[in-house]
Amino acid sequence: MKANAFAISKGTTTPTLHSLPAWPEHLPRIPFPKTYCFFTHVAFAFDPRSHAAPQATASLLIEIDDRTLKSASREKNLDLATLDERHKAELAAEIAMAAARDYLAADSEFRPFPAQRFVNFELVHPTHISVKPPATKVLPSGARVWRLAETEAEKLRGEPHSIRFPDLERRLAEHPFLKGMSPHHLEVLALCAAPTEFDPGQVVFRAGEPANGFYLLESGSVVLEGKTNDGKSVVIDTVAAGEPLGWSWLFPPYVWEFDAEATEACDAICFSGILLRQHRDDDLTLSHELHKRMSELMVRRLRAAREKLISANSAA
């Protein structure tokens, strides 16, 4: 269940969630500063494989405001004014994930547990956090973090993707790119994944945009295009059903190298790069499996890109 507001009950310091009232028609609308609010539920365990029965949990609400977003965009050499709403939300999500990890790393309660897993990481929208209660912690980035009691967390917590989409692990296991991956790693990947689809002619991503994850195509095909020295588009490669799409989420600065466009209707599984990087960093065996598979893809794509661009520039 998604909540629409975050405020204070009268006579208490406990956050209460409720819907915002309708704005009166006769009053002018006041432009409130844009904020992004994320809810995350994190499970901790002594064994990475025991996250289904964690030894400790934490539920956090994290607010990223305009000032924090502008500061992060400057550090990444991004022009915030040119980013659309989706990419601003993705940038806010990266800041929020880093804030959650910093907050939890500094809390002595969770230090005994070597394994942590983000079971939920959701944008709560629209939302507003009132000036009370004060944030549990304000991080150097400007992100504000609230530690929620379990009763309040229940109002925000949604189901993990692996529960929301019960056949997701089966679909992952059947995909050629993940052939031979362990059930444990497939379970972790399912926490970071959701089904999606593309229409013919739909742009999946463009070069220079933030790389927010990758896709496994189950049907259809997508073309990758690059630019020649004179700016003309050149088809670099075609990604077909049974293949992965995108590897730029693995490496800084996490931006796409090529344009990608669906040439026909596609079914795919989309992975969150933010969650994947978190799990990859916490689980070295998962990191090895993903890098091993992605490296083979990268070598093939880069060779194809080099050959196509050299040929196109020579012809020009």
Helix-strand layout with pairing:
Blueprint: E1 6-8, E2 15-17, E3 35-45, E4 56-65, H1 66-75, H2 85-105, E5 115-123, E6 137-138, E7 144-147, H3 150-156, H4 161-164, H5 168-174, H6 183-191, E8 193-198, E9 203-205, E10 213-219, E11 221-227, E12 233-240, E13 244-245, E14 259-262, E15 266-272, H7 273-282, H8 284-315
Helix pairs in contact: 1-2, 5-6, 7-8
Summarize the helix and strand pattern as letters: EEEEHHEEEHHHHEEEEEEEEHH
| Rg from alpha-carbon coordinates | 21 Å
> What number of domains?
2
Helix count equals 8
From the 3D structure, determine the CATH topology of the largest domain. Jelly Rolls
Top-tier CATH class of the largest domain: Mainly Beta
The biggest sheet amounts to: 5 strands, antiparallel
Shape: globular
**Total strand segments:** 15
Short recap of the structure:
This protein has helices at 66-75, 85-105, 150-156, 161-164, 168-174, 183-191, 273-282, 284-315; strands spanning 6-8, 15-17, 35-45, 56-65, 115-123, 137-138, 144-147, 193-198, 203-205, 213-219, 221-227, 233-240, 244-245, 259-262, 266-272. It is of the alpha+beta class.
What does this structure look like?
This protein is 32% helix and 27% strand. The protein has two domains: 6-158, Chemotaxis protein chec; 162-315, Sandwich (Jelly Rolls), CATH 2.60.120. The protein has helices at residues 66-75, 85-105, 150-156, 161-164, 168-174, 183-191, 273-282, 284-315; strands at residues 6-8, 15-17, 35-45, 56-65, 115-123, 137-138, 144-147, 193-198, 203-205, 213-219, 221-227, 233-240, 244-245, 259-262, 266-272. The strands form four sheets. It has a five-stranded antiparallel beta sheet with strand order 5-3-4-7-6, with helices on both faces. Strands 8-15-10-13 form a four-stranded antiparallel beta sheet. A four-stranded antiparallel beta sheet has the order 9-14-11-12. With 316 residues, it is an alpha+beta fold.
